[in-house]
Structures are given as C-alpha cells and as structure tokens.
Amino acid sequence: MARLDARNGRSAPGDWFVDTRCIDCGGCRHVAPTLLADEAGLTIFTRQPADAMEEEQAWLGAELCPTQSIGTTSRRHAPVGLYPRQIASGVHLCGSNSRSSYGAHSWFVTRPDGNLLIDSPRATRKLMRAFEARGGIAAVLLSHRDDVADAEEYATHFGAAIYIHVDDARAAPFATNVIEGADPVPIRPGVVMIPVPGHTRGSVVYLVDDRDLFSGDSLAWDGDAGDLEAFADACWYSWTVQQKSLGRLAGHPFEQVFAGHGSWSPRRTTTEMRERLLALVDRM
Ligand code: SF4
Q: Which helix (H) or strand (E) segment is 270 a member of?
C-alpha cells in the first residue's frame, strides 16, 4: 500500500498520490502516460484523473508498481480484473512488476498448445488465479538473468517448463530447459528463442509466430520518439556485441515489440520494423 507519510509533494494535489519509495522504473508511465511523469527521478501525478477511463489508468499503474507507491488518500481498493491486460491479440501485460527485476514488465501469451509466461511478475494470489482461469502456464520463457523474479513459484504451481540461455542460467538454477549456442532455436510450436548477447551475455528474445517479439531488456519502443530504442546506459555485458546481435535480429520478421523495460510498440509491417531496427543499429 502506498505510504501517505512518504507522499511526494510534487504530485498534483488530490486523492491520488505517489510516494517517494518510487525507484523510477517507468512502468506505471507506460499504462498511464497522460497522468504520470518523471520529475527529478521520481514519478508524480501531473494531474488527477478526470474521468472513469483515467481512473482505470491510475489503477493500472498502482497494480503494476513494484514498490506499491501509487495510491489514494481515501484508501480505495483497486477494481478486480485489471490484469492480465490484453495489449494485442493473445498478448497480455501481467502487472505486479517485481522490484527484483527493477520493475520490468512481464507478459502472458495465450496459445492453443499451452500458455506462456515471458519473464516473471511478483507471485500474487490474484495473478495465480487469473492465469488458472485462462488455462494455466505451460512454459516460462526467461529473457535474461535480471528478470527471473518469481518464475520458480509460477512454474512450480503450474508444472511449467522454464527456458533460459546457458550464459545467464546461474540466475535460474531451477530451469528445466537450458539452451546453448548462438543460433536461433525453435523451442515450442511457433516460438523461437533468438540469442542476442549484449545487455547480458545470455540475453535472448522470443519470437512468436514471426509476429510478436518479446525483447527483454535488449530492445524497446520509445513512445515519445515513436521509434525503437536500446539502452546504452543499462548495458551490462557489451554494447558492441549488442549492436551486432540486433543487426542479426533484423533478419527475423516481426511486427510488434513487447519489452521488459521501456514501452511496447504499436503493430507495424515487418518491412517498417526491419528498417527501424537497422536504423537503430546504425545509431548504436
Ligand atoms: S511503477 Fe512505481 S516504482 Fe516504477 S516509476 Fe511508477 S511509481 Fe515509480
């Protein structure tokens, strides 16, 4: 619950507030971009929600926040059923971002041959029940060592396989499927793990149906610039290697990017996404 005694006084006055435990992960600003903004390294409300739709956006931010820093002075309870939140056909934002992954987004993907959890949210009863109601989880796909969070709890609860690349596997000693090598590997029907070392040595992306690209912290969408981006100031292994990895990734068709950190993209043609990715590689 957000702490009133730590309320950030820079927030717009009113019922909604953000407390100063915020770690500035940026996640809430992706679901409530017209209400929340970064101010001196902390998130604030730039104004109070004005209607029911904006109230829902504020609740989406509150339910997602890894430090539970967003709340109301009137101590209202969140509406039920906010998450998993469908963002695209079959692709859902999980919410309940974990502090251990610095507030990274995770994704729930419904598939006829078994649903996928891509990176992990905090383990909460609400999400467990929501996943149960949607047919459970067949596989947990980890993009890299930083976004493991409560993957083991979800995998144990649902009897799911866990995939990770061998070069980041120390972060998930409980993984059932440790993938080696530098080449793309089909891991399930329509799902390919593509190694993209750079952000970390064992970073991978997951390409689903040659359309949806789950990019971990290797590639994201900059909503302000309206373009693909990568994070030089959050590259833990090698920026040069990451540049080469993303250059190779341009050989794979995708239409939409769902990131861990950073926002998700709108759907575009594979040609446009390839051109944007190649331009990003040039900028890197
Ligand atoms: S989600 Fe929480 S921790 Fe992250 S920027 Fe928003 S208020 Fe801060």
A: helix 270-283
Question: Checking DSSP bridges between strand 161-165 and strand 256-259, what pairing results, if any?
Answer: unpaired
Confidence of residue 48 (pLDDT cuts 50, 70, 90): very high
Closest-lying ligand 1 atom to the alpha carbon of residue 25: 4
Kindly report, residue by residue over 141-152, the tens digit of the pLDDT: 999 999 999 999
Residue 159, exposed/middle/buried by CB under 10 A (0-12, 13-18, 19+)?
exposed
Pairing of strands 220-222, 42-45: unpaired
pLDDT of residue 205: 98
Percent above pLDDT 90 for the chain: 99
For residue 120, give the 3-state DSSP assignment.
coil
Look up tokens 């493991």; give the residue: 148
Model-wide pTM > 0.85: yes
**CA 137 to CA 117: how far, in whole Å?**
7
C-alpha–C-alpha distance, residues 2 and 72, integer Å: 8
Question: Would you say the CB of residue 66 lies under 6 angstroms from ligand 1?
Answer: yes
Q: Can you give the pLDDT at residue 184?
A: 98
What pLDDT sits at residue 219?
Answer: 98
The helix/strand/coil state of 159 is coil
Q: Which of 25, 38, 93, 122 to mutate to test the pocket of ligand 1 (most atoms within 8 A of CB)?
A: 25
Q: Which domains does the chain have, with CATH numbers?
A: 4-72 (3.30.70.20), 85-283 (3.60.15.10)
Evaluate: CB of 253 within 6 angstroms of ligand 1: no
